[in-house]
Each structure stands twice: as C-alpha cells, then as structure tokens.
Amino acid sequence: MSFFLPKRHPGQMIGAFVVAIACTAALGSMQIPQLHQLSSKPTDLSTEQVKQAVEAETLYLRLLRQLPSFGFENLVADWTFLNFLQYFGDDPARLKSDYRLSPEYFEIILRRDPRFLLAYFFLSGSTSIYAGMPERTIEIMDMGLKFVSPRNPPKSYYIWRYRGVDELLFLGDPQASQRSFEKAAEWASSYSDPESQFIAAVSQRTAQFLARNPRSKLAQFSAWTMILTSAVDERTRKRAVIEIQALGGKVFIGPDGRYQVRPPTSD
C-alpha cells in the first residue's frame, strides 16, 4: 500500500476527493441514529445505549479499514483521528464501557499515514494507559516506524521516546526501553535546535540509567515526568503524580501554574 499522495490530473483529484468524501459520509450515516441518541443526553446514558454505540463504532471502524482511499490516504487518516477524538473525549460513555477501541483507530490512522506524528502521542496515552494494551501500542508503533526516518516527519525521535516509555513502564522491558531511548537520542542528535539537543541529552541519560540499573528509579521517574508534562487530561496527570511520588520523587506546582518535579534521592 502506498502512503504517498500520487500526482494526478486536477480533474481526477477532485473527482476522487468527492468519491472519497461520499464513501466516508455513507459510512458515517450508519452511525447517525446511535450518535444522535447519545448526543441528546450525554450525561444520562444507559449501559445499553453505550453498548449499542460501541457496536456501531466497531462496525464503522471495520468498514473504514476497508474504505478505498482513491489516493487520499492522509484524508482518511485525519478523518479517523477526528473520530477517535470524539470517542476518547466522550467521558460518560467511556466510564460505562472502556477504551478498547482506541488501538483500532490508530491501526487505521497509521496504516494510512505512518508519518502522522501526533497520532503516536495519542496512541501511547489512550492504548497503553487507558485501554491497558501496551503490547498493541508497540505493535502499531512498529508498523509505522518502518516508514519513518530521523527527519521524516520532522522530530520523529519522539516516537522512539513514546516507545521507550511504554516498554519501561507498561511492558516491564527495560532492555527494549534502553534501545528505544538510545535510538531517540541518536535521531534527536541529528538536529541542532535547542529542543532536539535537550531531548537527545535526556534520552541518552535515561538509556544510561537503564544500562547501569534495569530497575532504575531515575529512568522511571524520567518516563513518568514526560507523561506528566505532556498529558492532555487530568486523569493521566494524577496517575503520573502518584507514580512519581511512589518512586520517591517530589511534585510541585510552580508560580506559573506548571508542574515542577524533583527526582528521587537514590536510584
């Protein structure tokens, strides 16, 4: 499967675009009754309503996976990502079900557009932390990494950092995590900007902690700190704070309202 947008005659591109939108809209219309029912009373959902919506979404994703892209792989990836955000952000429904569909969204997204950097961030958080399926996270990341290079997409070293965090904290595989952080450091060091140089240094330091001590508290502290400072939801932030404190670290709220951390005194 090609992950690149082929060159087409403008008329062909417009026609393909219209067909792709029509197909996607047709699939989306299958969800309208369930979604309308859910959106009408978002805070008063029955378990049966949620179950029906999840079943409809499962079918929708199955069909979306088979949807021909007509050369618009990125369009399908973006559309699926927007659907994921609706699914993930529906707290009342998720509280009455679970997050098990999260990896299904990202398998579609990253098959269509493996260089969609933001998707890897949400893949890690939603699938490893919320759905409790870190093995699927790594499997999908590995699928996408085959099509990624140090500079395409820019700052793709973050993917290796996400991978290293999941391997360390959720799979309990410090050796694999060490290799991922080493790769993150290698890729980040090819950039000259301050952010990339900082990431290169931090990643290399984490890899060194793990090489010296596979059960390193400092390595785990670094990983949870990354989760804390990048989390987009309060539930993940609270868990990160608890885990950092359990490792012997300290968490403070600075004058600017941002989290500040202090590492454990011993490794």
Q: How many angstroms does the end-to-end distance come to?
A: 46 Å
Range of helix content: 55-70%
pLDDT < 50 runs, ≥5 residues: 1-41
* Mean pLDDT score: 84
- By secondary-structure content and strand pairing, the structural class works out as mainly alpha
**What's the total number of strands?**
2
Rough shape? Answer: globular
Provide the succession of SSEs: HHHHHHHHHHHHHEE
Number of helices: 13
Please give the largest β-sheet: 2 strands, antiparallel
How much of the sequence is in beta strands? under 5%
Q: How would you write the strand order of the largest sheet?
A: 1-2
Q: Determine Rg (CA atoms, Å).
A: 20 Å
Number of spatially distinct domains: 2
Give the SSE map:
Layout: H1 10-29, H2 32-40, H3 47-66, H4 73-89, H5 91-95, H6 102-112, H7 117-130, H8 134-145, H9 157-169, H10 174-188, H11 194-212, H12 217-230, H13 234-246, E1 250-253, E2 259-262
Antiparallel strand pairs: 1-2
Helix pairs in contact: 2-3, 4-6, 6-7, 6-8, 7-8, 7-9, 8-9, 9-10, 9-12, 10-11, 11-12, 12-13
